[in-house]
């Protein structure tokens, strides 16, 4: 569903938001898309267990936990930060995952960096037995296949497609299905331009670019300006935005409009990738840092 943003913008530019966050109450946005074909493949190969990776407030961990429970899989989550093991009850995301039946294994940040190495994978198999591996963030070829279904024929009217980026899987699927007259813009939640090479491994089209100025200091970094923007946007449009991904992307697009980045009368489609479940946990962090909180009804 595409929801028109009612605010008026410079140069007769219009914005609509594709509400992927409404696909499913617990497996929303790009997580639904990324898991769709992976779960079908796991069933086809007769796996009984899904294993994946994530951080303290990971949307991916929450989605895999619920989807696994719903589809009859045992789930294992390898969590970054061994100090979190004693704090599950204080963390809404990890509590939700555990209540869905996910087995949580907490490891140090140093060990977590080794997660892609063959020796680490072998160690996990010795510990947990056979499992279907879903990468951190869910990005692989099957995830991209699912994300290619985000755009529909009705979206042909848009000139620009904008999407936040974590691991690059969602935008890769969008790039592959975008039409030749459309420009796809990605807004990384991490510092740096390194994701371009990752994305090039999955795409054929050239009508895309990354806008790297709206990470707000890096992954998970937030300031009062962003929180205020998210609250104001919700008040005006009744569309909740998360502070890690979509909130930064929407902030960036509107800032670029004000800087005359887009031609007059451009039609822009923003992809809402979900992530709303993480707001409760992020608000806890904000209170500890004496920052304002995100005030939305979800």
Which terms would index this structure?
alpha/beta; 298 residues; globular; six-stranded mixed beta sheet
Explain what the structure shows.
- This is Pyridoxal-phosphate dependent enzyme.
- Keywords: Pyridoxal phosphate.
- Its cofactor is pyridoxal 5'-phosphate.
- InterPro entries: ACCD_DCysDesulf, TrpB-like_PALP, TrpB-like_PALP_sf.
- It is built from 11 helices and 10 strands.
- The chain has helices spanning 29-44, 59-71, 92-99, 109-112, 118-128, 141-147, 169-177, 195-200, 224-237, 246-258, 279-288, and strands spanning 2-4, 14-18, 49-54, 74-80, 103-107, 132-133, 160-165, 183-188, 208-210, 267-271.
- The strands form 2 sheets. Strands 1-2-10-7-8-9 form a 6-stranded mixed sheet. A 4-stranded parallel sheet has the order 5-4-3-6.
Q: What percentage of the residues does DSSP assign to strands (E)?
A: 15-25%
Radius of gyration: 19 Å
Global mean pLDDT: 93
Q: Give the H and E element order.
A: EEHEHEHEHHEHEHEHEHHEH
From the spread of the alpha carbons, the general shape counts as: globular
- Uncertain runs are none
Helical content band? 25-40%
**Tell me about the biggest sheet?**
6 strands, mixed
Q: Compute the separation of the termini in Å.
A: 18 Å
For the largest sheet, list the strands in their spatial order.
1-2-10-7-8-9
Protein name: Pyridoxal-phosphate dependent enzyme
Domain Tryptophan synthase beta chain-like PALP: 14-274
InterPro entries: ACCD_DCysDesulf, TrpB-like_PALP, TrpB-like_PALP_sf
Keywords: Pyridoxal phosphate
Short description:
With 298 residues, the protein is an alpha/beta fold. Helix content is 37%, strand content 16%.
């Amino acid at each position: 569903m595409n929801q028109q943003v009612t605010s008026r913008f410079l140069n007769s530019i219009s914005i609509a938001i594709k509400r992927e966050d409404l696909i499913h109450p617990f497996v929303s946005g790009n997580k639904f898309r990324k898991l769709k074909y992976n779960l079908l493949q796991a069933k086809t190969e007769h796996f009984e267990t899904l294993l994946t990776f994530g951080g303290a407030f990971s949307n991916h961990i929450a989605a895999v936990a619920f989807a696994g429970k719903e589809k009859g899989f045992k789930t294992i989550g390898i969590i970054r930060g061994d100090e979190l093991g004693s704090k599950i009850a204080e963390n809404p995301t990890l509590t939700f995952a555990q209540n869905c039946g996910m087995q949580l294994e907490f490891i140090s940040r140093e060990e977590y960096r080794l997660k892609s190495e063959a020796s680490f994978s072998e160690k996990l198999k010795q510990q947990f037995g056979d499992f279907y591996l879903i990468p951190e963030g869910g990005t692989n070829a099957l995830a991209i296949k699912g994300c290619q279904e985000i755009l529909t024929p009705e979206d042909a009217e848009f000139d620009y497609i904008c999407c936040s980026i974590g691991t690059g899987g969602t935008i890769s699927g969008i790039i592959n299905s975008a039409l030749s007259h459309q420009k796809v813009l990605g807004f990384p939640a991490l510092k740096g331009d390194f994701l371009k090479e990752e994305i090039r491994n999955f795409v054929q089209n050239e009508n895309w670019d990354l806008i790297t100025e709206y990470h707000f200091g890096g992954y998970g970094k937030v300031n009062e300006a962003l929180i205020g923007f998210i609250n104001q946007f919700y008040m005006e449009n009744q569309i909740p935005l998360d502070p890690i991904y979509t909130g930064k992307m929407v902030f960036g697009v509107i800032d670029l409009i004000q800087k005359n980045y887009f031609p007059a009368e451009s039609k822009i489609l923003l992809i809402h990738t979900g992530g709303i479940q993480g707001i409760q946990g992020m608000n806890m962090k904000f209170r500890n840092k004496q920052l304002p909180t995100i005030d939305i009804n979800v």
